[in-house]
Amino acid sequence: MKRLAFFISGTGGNALNLLQACREGRVPAEPVLALASSPKAAGLAKLQAEGLEGRVLERKAFGSDAAFSEACFAACEAAGVDLVCLAGWLKKLAIPPRWEGRILNIHPALLPKFGGPGMYGMHVHRAVVAAGEAESGATVHLVDEVYDHGRILAQARVPVLPGDTPEALQQRVYGAEMDLYPKALAAFLDAGAR
Ligand code: GRF
Predict the structure, then answer these.
(1) Domain total for the chain?
(2) What residue numbers bound the domain in which 128 lies?
(3) For residue 125, what pLDDT is reported?
(4) Residue 10 CB–ligand 1 contact under 6 Å
(5) I need a labelling partner for 190 at 20 to 30 A (CA). Which of 25, 30, 46, 133 fits?
């Protein structure tokens, strides 16, 4: 069974949801490590309480994205991690070649639209509403050197309703994320096993 790390910067909601899916046998993987980019990331304590090893690595402690990233992936290697799921992770990563194709992310929009630097959290939903889009959604993709750019693995669509606030849209998209990320991860693992 593949060993998973979750990289988080916030609530850890997606990570906890993936953990539950693993424990219920919907995703054939074993979560072992939670890596937080800040000691304030609320999800860290919850994931540790669930038995995961918790680590905090702060970007400001390193001189470059590359040095920071090396430390993040060294932590993964020390924990015997095979696959990384970014789950609300906000820091730029320089992907070491040995990790290419082994890092997944979830983005709260239908990439390639509404992605890239600065497009995170409520910024995304504000931009979608301001653009008058009829639909939005969530995207699970492989992570490469370019923000929100790697191969798309799965998407879920939700309508943008008349009068939607960015907050209302965020809640609808977040609900879709809870369904999408476990399914996309399970399908990715299944494809690798064949
Ligand atoms: C989600 O909307 C996800 O798409 C984005 O960051 C948010 C993380 O939420 N990458 P949480 O920390 O998992 O609650």
Answers:
(1) 2
(2) 107-141+153-194
(3) 98
(4) yes
(5) 46
